[in-house]
Amino acid sequence: MDTESNTKTEKIPNTEVKTEEPDKLIKAIGEIGKWQIMLWLLVAFPTKAISAWHQLGIVFIAPPTSYMCTETNLTNSIEINTCYSDCVSYDFYTDFENTIISQWELICEKAWLANFSQTICMFGVLIGSIVFGYVADRYGRRPALLVACMLQLVTTVVEAFCPTYWLFTTVRFFIGAAIAGTMLSSFILMMEIIGPLKRELMNCLCALPMPVGQMLMPLFGYYLRSWDRYCLGIAIPNVLYLAYFFILPESPKWLLSVGKLEEASKVMTQAAKWNNLPSHNMLDVAKSIASEKEKTSEPIRKPTYLDLLKTKVLRINTLCSCLIWFVLGMSFYGSNQYIGQTSSNVFITVALAGVLQFPGILLSGILSKYFGRKITLISFFIVCGGSNAFLIVPEDWFAVRLTMGAVGVGCASGAFATMYMFTTELFPTVARNMAMGASSTTSRVGSMIAPYIAGMTVFAAWLPPVAFAVVPLLGAITCLFLPETRGKALS
Questions:
Q1: pTM (predicted TM-score)
Q2: Average pLDDT of each block of 10 consecutive residues along the chain (491 residues)?
Q3: Which residues 6+ apart lie within 8 Å of 342 measured at CB?
């Protein structure tokens, strides 16, 4: 099948969609207008910014903490950050009043538990990507987003009052799952209500809240210097999600894809009114779109993850997308790992990492619009790999390491933003969220591996920079197997 042709159709079980359908839909509701911007402000922006606080907040929950034994039977001198088998109690020294490390004495043989809670959170993101991807495609974007938001609201409040470490870690798993649901479902919703000519713009708008949230996060950490107060502080804004029961619409594209024409026409009417477009006879427009699909469609049934592998084109797109997302997860968190080593002030480091993502995200929108998704991704991967290779220089070359680390973070974030949009364009509506979920899952695997690669300095100082330089090149090569989607309507 010719994937480059606008006149061909893409078949997966139960659906065969022509490119005329999204053209008619976008013509009815508008490429972009007050309705789309309103949903971005009320849905996409809060979910992404708040998710950053929870996903990256471990730096303020378990910051670097020194300790010293204060009561022991040993007669020799006591040294800081040293464990003693007969030590009765320890004092902890950090910039914070209380951390999970001091709360549950996660030192010595229990030191690994501090980062383990973050690993479990990322594992929750992995599972949540799969579960909510399936829910969103089978039951709708709105139900998936509402369930994820309510789960995030409840678990983030409970997190602040956990009396034991293991309960805290269990709650972190469900927070991670909720984060995956809110980020993926909100992004897919926004991509499905925007026209192809404005998709690059909306992609940038949806990517920017994440670094904005990361830049604001140090304020919570600075003024709420206890892990439980910090958790409660970032949980309170989640109350905003209660309003979604009243303002959140379903994706009209999804409603049309599953044959719910009356519901789709109501959402389309609302959008048209907000955007000052003709809003009458929307049901006739929905029926017209549906009638074109029914000429060649099979009976509608619920999609499954196996549908992503049913045709050769979908198999290639799925496998390549998953591999690229894996590379992105490893590259993005690997670059952040190195940039984080350039400053001893955790507040400055976190804010700086957020600032450095802006150039990459903005450049992603410009390059994607004028040169296409493939060229943009390949360029980001090559520059990211090259900049990471320069991190092999000695540690006293501070300026070089800081500059190259900044370039790596910017390119990784730009590639991430591009791939979010690219993935939505590679798959049809009835399987789009599942494709995003599967791809995001592999990304979380990459992000979980990144810290271990960074820790290979114990074997050889050159190993981590070389690994983080080679991996992006693998992503660049994989891009060559995917079709270009710039300017194409969503199928």
A1: 0.78
A2: 38 40 75 91 92 84 84 71 81 87 88 82 86 87 95 95 95 94 89 83 86 90 91 94 93 88 91 88 83 59 67 86 89 66 69 83 87 92 87 74 78 88 81 78 80 65 81 92 80 64
A3: 349, 398, 401, 402, 405
Q: Are residues 244 and 309 in the same domain?
A: no
Range of the domain at 131: 31-258
Rounded to the nearest 10°, the torsion over CA 104, 109, 114, 116 is -130
Residues 482, 374: contact at Cβ < 8 Å?
A: yes
Length of the chain: 491
Q: Do 341 and 400 share a domain, yes or no?
A: yes
- Determine the Cα angle at 358 with ends 352 and 364, to 5°: 145
Q: Which of 201, 224, 258 is the last residue of a domain?
A: 258
d(CA 361, CA 418): 8
* CATH code, 168: 1.20.1250.20
Amino acid identity, position 464? P
Question: How many independent structural domains does the chain possess?
Answer: 2
Which amino acid, residue 111?
Answer: A
User: Is there a single domain that holds both residue 465 and residue 349?
Assistant: yes
